[in-house]
Structure formats: structure tokens, C-alpha cells
């Protein structure tokens, strides 16, 4: 819901940092891999109940996730890079609820499972529409330059990272945060399925 606003706000700073990285010869794919590695370190820290380390590593990972796109747009975006970015992002997003479940399985396992199940809905509806939008020649005018057609919703990357950060700050409230966010993800899935179906149906009839 807030991704477009967050990107507008952060874009100048990201572009400035990206120009320095391009001059230093750092590639977008290298940043993608580094961000993923730090994200996995965040998951390990959370699993070990090192909450503040987990938070710091999580935020650093997502900063690099923003920088890789900025570097790609300043150089030469590739389909391979776009695929790598989205594939590793989905692994990262799944790893954080799993890490909280490992940290305290007696209280966190079921809410983590509910959250992961909700991620299946948001992720599958997003990727299925993106594949068919490409086939039908649909473009996303709201977020141009992306490798995929980004369907919006209540729970996009900005909201997900905010909730993950809140879980690190208040790990004792993980279950409430996980169930609440899973509910919002379910609403997002419904919105995406309905909007995507109607959009593709309208395209087929045009």
C-alpha cells in the first residue's frame, strides 16, 4: 500500500548511493546476493533470539535490496537480475517467520505457519498475474522499470518490513502481529485475485 510513497521518498538517496557503487564497479547482482546473505544472517540471529541483531541485519538487507534496483537502472537491467532479485526476496520473506518459530516453537509455530500460508496467497497471486500480464503485453505505469508487473494491496514490501521490525522490537507479541498481518495478507490476496481476474478478462475481451 505504501511502496510507491516509500520509493518516491527514498529514491534520491538510493540513486546517490547507487551512482557511487556504479563508479566503484559494484554490480546489481552482487548487491542482490549480499542483501540475501545478510537477510539469512538476520534469520539466524532471530532464531537465536538475538532480536536487535536480527533487526539491524534485516534493515541492512532491505537497504541493499533497494540499492540493487537503483544500480541496475543506472547500468543495464537484465531479466536474469530481475529473476534473481524476486526469487531471493521470496526466500528471505519466508525465512523470518520461520526464524521466529524456531526461536520459540511452543508459542510461535502456529502463528508463523499462518503467516507463511498467507504469504503463499500474496506471492502466488502476484507472480501468476505478472506472468500473464507479460504474455498479454500489460505494463505497470505506476512502477515503470520493474522486472514484473507489481500488483498492489494492503501488504506490500514496506508493510512487511515494518511488521518484521516490530516483531524484532516486541518479540513477545509475535503471535498477535503474525495473525494480524496474516489477516491483512488474506485481504490483499482477495484484492489481487479479483482485480487480476477482471483486468485479464477485460484484456481478453478488448
UniProtKB/TrEMBL annotation:
<keyword id="KW-0812">Transmembrane</keyword>
<dbReference type="InterPro" id="IPR000462">
    <property type="entry name" value="CDP-OH_P_trans"/>
</dbReference>
<dbReference type="InterPro" id="IPR043130">
    <property type="entry name" value="CDP-OH_PTrfase_TM_dom"/>
</dbReference>
<feature type="transmembrane region" description="Helical">
    <location>
        <begin position="81"/>
        <end position="103"/>
    </location>
</feature>
<dbReference type="GO" id="GO:0016020">
    <property type="term" value="C:membrane"/>
</dbReference>
<feature type="transmembrane region" description="Helical">
    <location>
        <begin position="33"/>
        <end position="60"/>
    </location>
</feature>
<dbReference type="GO" id="GO:0008654">
    <property type="term" value="P:phospholipid biosynthetic process"/>
</dbReference>
<dbReference type="InterPro" id="IPR048254">
    <property type="entry name" value="CDP_ALCOHOL_P_TRANSF_CS"/>
</dbReference>
<feature type="transmembrane region" description="Helical">
    <location>
        <begin position="176"/>
        <end position="195"/>
    </location>
</feature>
<keyword id="KW-0808">Transferase</keyword>
<feature type="transmembrane region" description="Helical">
    <location>
        <begin position="109"/>
        <end position="132"/>
    </location>
</feature>
<keyword id="KW-0472">Membrane</keyword>
<comment type="similarity">
    <text>Belongs to the CDP-alcohol phosphatidyltransferase class-I family.</text>
</comment>
<dbReference type="GO" id="GO:0016780">
    <property type="term" value="F:phosphotransferase activity, for other substituted phosphate groups"/>
</dbReference>
<protein>
    <recommendedName>
        <fullName>CDP-alcohol phosphatidyltransferase</fullName>
    </recommendedName>
</protein>
<dbReference type="Pfam" id="PF01066">
    <property type="entry name" value="CDP-OH_P_transf"/>
</dbReference>
<keyword id="KW-1133">Transmembrane helix</keyword>
Amino acid at each position: 500500500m505504501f511502496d510507491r510513497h516509500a520509493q518516491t521518498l527514498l529514491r534520491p538517496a538510493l540513486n546517490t548511493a547507487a551512482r557511487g557503487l556504479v563508479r566503484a564497479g559494484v554490480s546489481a547482482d552482487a548487491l542482490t546476493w549480499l542483501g540475501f546473505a545478510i537477510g539469512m544472517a538476520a534469520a539466524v540471529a532471530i532464531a537465536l533470539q538475538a532480536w536487535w541483531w536480527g533487526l539491524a541485519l534485516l534493515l541492512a538487507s532491505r537497504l541493499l535490496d533497494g540499492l540493487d534496483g537503483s544500480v541496475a537502472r543506472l547500468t543495464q537491467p537484465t531479466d536474469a537480475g530481475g529473476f534473481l532479485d524476486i526469487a531471493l526476496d521470496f526466500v528471505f520473506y519466508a525465512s523470518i517467520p520461520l526464524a521466529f518459530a524456531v526461536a520459540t516453537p511452543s508459542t510461535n509455530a502456529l502463528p508463523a505457519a499462518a503467516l507463511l500460508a498467507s504469504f503463499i496467497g500474496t506471492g502466488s497471486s502476484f507472480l501468476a498475474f505478472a506472468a500473464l500480464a507479460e504474455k498479454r503485453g500489460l505494463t505497470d505505469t505506476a512502477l515503470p522499470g520493474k522486472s514484473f508487473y507489481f500488483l498492489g494491496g494492503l501488504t506490500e514490501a514496506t508493510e512487511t518490513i515494518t511488521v518484521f521490525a516490530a516483531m524484532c522490537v516486541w518479540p513477545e507479541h509475535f503471535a498477535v502481529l503474525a495473525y494480524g498481518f496474516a489477516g491483512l495478507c488474506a485481504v490483499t490476496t482477495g484484492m489481487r485475485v479479483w482485480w487480476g481476474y477482471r483486468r485479464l478478462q477485460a484484456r481478453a475481451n478488448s
